[in-house]
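Reference record
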Amino acid sequence: MEKIMMMVSGFVMKDLSSSVPHAELLGVLVIITSISIVLAYHYCTTKPRRCLHPEKFQEFKLVKKTAVNHNVARFRFALPTPKSVLGLPVGNHIICRGRDAEGQEVTKPYTPITLDSDFGYFELVVKMYPHGRMSHHFREMHEGDYMAVKGPTGRFTYKPGQVRALGMIAGGSGITPMFQVTRAILENPKDKTNLSLIYANTTFQDILLKEELDGFARKFPSRFNVYYVLSQPPAEGWSGGVGRITKDMIRNHCPAPASDIQVLRCGPSGMNKAMAAHLNELGYTADMQFKF
């Protein structure tokens, strides 16, 4: 923008300097400067382009695929411009479309771990199951391939400060919506919501986004705490929970039932049912709970 205006003003001044009186030349310069300011203000204050369409699938290029462990990878997709944002409300997810091993079309919802404060790209952390239909598509993707995506969709949309405290119970790849909400809250200086996360997995290697979660815990020790639970913990040095998530774990690591708290849960169906039963028995009413 600055270069264009300098070129224009230089051209105009060169053309007019020999034939226009000094006073008029100064007036032209003032006009050009004013136009430059208006255009620069418009450029800087224009809202980033939102890319999602709720009904229409759009193609996004895979620019980076990073293996996390034996069956999980992190996928980065480019948006149309460096200033574009996905346009996903916090708590919502997207629908991805691909093809299974038989070549049949398949769709599945996923929650990006990025926010609209991330410009030019979005990222998914995807667990690829051996016989999962959409898992096959992700497993076969290579950098340079395209993914069809639409959205946003979902029943939960987080608003800053909507509760005093959030409890979160996640299993496996069910961490992604919790991570998205956690990022949005902790990266917003105006949001003072307290966060408690119980995150269950099979082995230590299965814990997703652990480095980022531990970073949040160090940076916000009074507002975010995470309690890891493993059904197959390491033989030595493990200080987290062992086995499955129990009522006592929820009682000790989630906010107590109250009208200004909420507990979110996301994980395998069996785990979700067990957590719902635990929460009900502990006195959490239906409006205090939400299942992704």
About this structure: The CA atoms of residues 38 and 44 lie 10 Å apart. Residues 38-45 have pLDDT under 50 and may be disordered.
